[in-house]
Write a structure and sequence with these properties.
This protein has 312 residues and is an alpha/beta fold. The chain contains 10 helices and 8 strands. β3 and β4 form a beta hairpin. The relative contact order is 0.10.
């Protein structure tokens, strides 16, 4: 076994020949390295003659790579690519047709117990008038011509005290910015006209309708048919303390709380009605929204009146 082990590590040939071969191999490797460096220097010389090389190119010539200064791992999270320039007609291609704003809303307003409350001056207790004024209500006195005749056959003159609903002037001003306001009252013109002149000093009401413009039905008298104001029922509403006034168009009606002189803290006009009208002014058709809010057709049905579909 010892002989076999020695034989495995045995190098044939004499020792002197082996040393010479080793020396020759090293010399060849040195010359090869020298030639390689000379080739690199020669390439650098050519690059310098052509133009100044970058430091990255110099490193690449010697077999090294420069570190990446902007790799995905080093990129800033705030980095955003430059936007690609859009063609000049991109807006017309990408944007759809402009939506036309809806027509101005038409708001029909009742007078008595909606915008004002009026009393015959002779029947109004002085304490009620005093307390209402002290509470902040605005009021004024008027002489109104009645349709009745006195003993001499002359038109009777009535003396009335009128109280404005709180916020009335602000309500007329702000609602007229987005709606056409129409007065529609079941009162006679001899009374309603001077009252309206007094409260509408800035002429915010575009039109006035009095009792002769109302209609009588088999169920109620003095019903206010909105088609005499506008044929487009999708953009008209009526505000009235008496819901029977809009019996013919129940889903266009906004029933409000009646107003009396004993209610100096009433907030219906500014706090309730004005915001609702503002929202309705943005609706293409006011009837679905009013139907969902008040369900007036069902209310009329409960009162024994026929149900009217708001889509008609």
């Amino acid at each position: 076994m010892a002989e076999l082990a020695q034989a495995e590590f045995y190098s044939p040939g004499p020792p002197a020949a082996s040393a010479a071969a080793t020396t020759t191999g090293k010399s060849v490797q040195v010359w090869r390295a020298l030639v390689s460096w000379l080739a690199i220097l020669f390439r650098l010389l050519l690059q310098i003659l052509r133009g100044t090389p970058s430091w990255a190119q110099l490193l690449s010539f010697v077999g090294l790579r420069p570190p990446l200064l902007f790799s995905p791992s080093n990129a800033s999270s705030a980095y955003k690519p430059l936007a690609v320039d859009q063609p000049t007609d991109a807006a017309s291609v990408n944007s759809g047709p402009a939506l036309e704003p809806p027509n101005r809303l038409t708001v029909v307003l009742d007078l008595d117990e909606t915008l004002v409350c009026a009393y015959e001056a002779s029947s109004l207790p002085p304490t009620v008038r005093t307390q209402a004024i002290e509470a902040g209500l605005k009021c004024f006195d008027l002489e109104c011509v009645s349709s009745e005749k006195d003993a001499d056959g002359k038109p009777k003159v009535n003396h009335v005290t009128v109280f404005e609903r709180p916020g009335l002037q602000e309500f007329l001003k702000r609602s007229s910015e987005f709606a056409d306001l129409v007065l529609f009252t079941a009162g006679l013109e001899g009374y309603a006209s001077p009252v309206t002149d007094k409260i509408d000093v800035d002429k915010k009401l575009t039109h006035r309708l009095y009792r002769p413009s109302t209609v009588s039905t088999e169920y109620r008298e003095h019903v206010k048919d909105l088609t005499c104001v506008s044929k487009d029922l999708s953009r008209i509403v009526i505000v009235d303390n008496n819901p029977f006034s809009f019996l013919l168009q129940p889903s266009n009606g906004i029933p409000c709380v009646p107003f009396f002189a004993a209610q100096p803290c009433d907030e219906q006009l500014i706090g309730v009605i004005l915001p609702l009208l503002k929202d309705l002014s943005q609706q293409k058709d006011v009837r679905p929204a009013l139907y969902e809010k008040f369900h007036m057709p069902e209310w009329f049905a409960q009162q024994g009146f026929p149900t009217v579909n708001y889509t008609q």
